[in-house]
Structures are given as structure tokens and as C-alpha cells.
Specification:
The chain is of the alpha+beta class and 143 residues long. Helices cover 54% and strands 15% of the residues. The strands form 2 sheets. The chain has a 3-stranded antiparallel beta sheet with strand order 1-3-2. A hairpin with a 2-residue loop joins β2 and β3. The radius of gyration is 16 Å and the shape is globular.
Length: 143
């Protein structure tokens, strides 16, 4: 019963669904997930860890970055849910938008880029007083 609850908990959050849908297209680096989702490394890593602990994905370290992919083979309830999500969510606008952005991000080869290029590519996020999320770039200090 614990495993079933863990799978449902993993699938109950939008960020984790987005990550899972992206990983259905193949292995991705954390830096690529950060750029597609426009979220900081800490937040992406927290959600990736949740998916990993639920047994839906696996990871491996490659140099500085961790790369993640769907666990193969998935069995039982996990496999059925992933297949259901693949069929039912693939046509949704937000999924198609994430996949398009993922393809664009992959052409930039962020894992191979310098730390400064990765930082510029991902930006930082903030919230306005009205509650809208905005991407803010760090400013250089005046010398």
C-alpha cells in the first residue's frame, strides 16, 4: 500500500508531472530541466528526488550534473500510470509547449557550456507584488 500511495503523491504535483512528461522524451540533465521549467536548481532537484524516491525515474552523475531518465522497465501500477499519462497528456498545450522548449534548450548544449552561460540561460525567478511570476536577471555591480 505504501508504494501505491508514494506513486500517487509523486503524480499529484504539477512540477513533477511536467518533469515526468519531459523525461518521456529521453534523458535530461538538471540544467536542461531548469531551463525548460524556468526554476532554480534547488526546486527542480527537490521534485526530481521525489520522483526518484517513488521509483518512477533513475539518475546518474555525469561530471558536474545529474542526468535523469524514466526507470526501465517500470512495472505494474507505475507502468500503467506512465503509459496513461503519455496517452492522455501528450496533446495538452502545456506539455507541447514544454517539449518545444526542451528541444530548443537541448540545441544550446547547456551541460557543456560555461557556468556563466548556464546562469544566463536559466535566469532567476521572482514574484511581483501582484503575485505574477517574472524572470529576473542578476545585474552586474557598477565599478
Amino acid at each position: 500500500m505504501e508504494d501505491i500511495a508514494q506513486i500517487y503523491k509523486a503524480l499529484s504535483e504539477q512540477m513533477r508531472l511536467r518533469i515526468l512528461m519531459l523525461l518521456m522524451h529521453g534523458e535530461l540533465c538538471v540544467c536542461e530541466l531548469m531551463a525548460v521549467l524556468e526554476e532554480p536548481q534547488s526546486k527542480v532537484s527537490r521534485h526530481v528526488a521525489y520522483l526518484k524516491n517513488s521509483g518512477l525515474i533513475e539518475g546518474k552523475r555525469m561530471g558536474t550534473w545529474n542526468h535523469y531518465f524514466l526507470k526501465e522497465p517500470l512495472e505494474g501500477l507505475a507502468a500503467a500510470h506512465v503509459e496513461f499519462l503519455r496517452k492522455e497528456l501528450s496533446g495538452l498545450d502545456w506539455v507541447r509547449s514544454d517539449v518545444e522548449k526542451m528541444k530548443e534548450v537541448q540545441t544550446r548544449k547547456l551541460c557543456e557550456a560555461s557556468p556563466e552561460i548556464r546562469k544566463r540561460a536559466s535566469g532567476t525567478r521572482g514574484t511581483t507584488a501582484a503575485g505574477k511570476t517574472v524572470v529576473r536577471r542578476k545585474r552586474k555591480a557598477n565599478s
